[in-house]
Specification:
This protein is an all-alpha fold. It has helices at 2-9, 14-43, 54-63, 67-70, 91-99, 115-127. It is 52% helix and 0% strand. The protein is globular.
Length: 143
């Protein structure tokens, strides 16, 4: 009861608090999934992808809507899907997340994306270079 009074005094509705909590929970689940996938990567537990066509993967990435959350270069962003490019997760973790997503991402079953198309997208993400470190960008340096 006391929490409700505090929320009303702060001008925050219960629905707004629940929405924020749901968002935080979704981000925690996504973070856990990525951390788990990166653990697999560091221990070498991954299936090698089939040779993919990066050029075709870029077309598919933009056609099926991956760019809507992960942006056109797989860089992700605040409040959207995580960064995929530069140092992607293992292929097996990538396929697992695609086929059986852990959070708000829609599932991309074999009916939507073939295994060949998935390999092409993965190759495209691998072809994107890592961004430069912030320390190498003069505008980001404190003066």
């Amino acid at each position: 009861m006391k929490d409700n009074i505090c929320l009303r005094k702060a001008g925050v509705s219960r629905a707004a608090c629940l929405l924020v909590l749901a968002g935080v929970a979704a981000m925690l689940i996504a973070t856990q999934t990525i951390a788990s996938a990166q653990d697999q990567k560091s221990t070498g537990q991954s299936a090698a992808p089939a040779a993919g066509n990066a050029e075709n993967g870029k077309k598919i990435f933009n056609t099926v809507g991956c760019f809507e959350c992960h942006d056109h270069e797989g860089q992700g962003g605040a409040g959207t899907g995580p960064r995929l490019a530069g140092d992607p997760i293992t292929f097996s973790a990538f396929v697992s997340q695609l086929r059986h997503p852990a959070s708000q991402m829609p599932p991309y079953t074999e009916k939507v994306l073939s295994d060949t198309q998935v390999a092409d997208i993965y190759s495209y993400l691998h072809s994107i270079p890592k961004p430069p470190p912030a320390s190498s960008i003069p505008l980001l340096q404190e003066k």
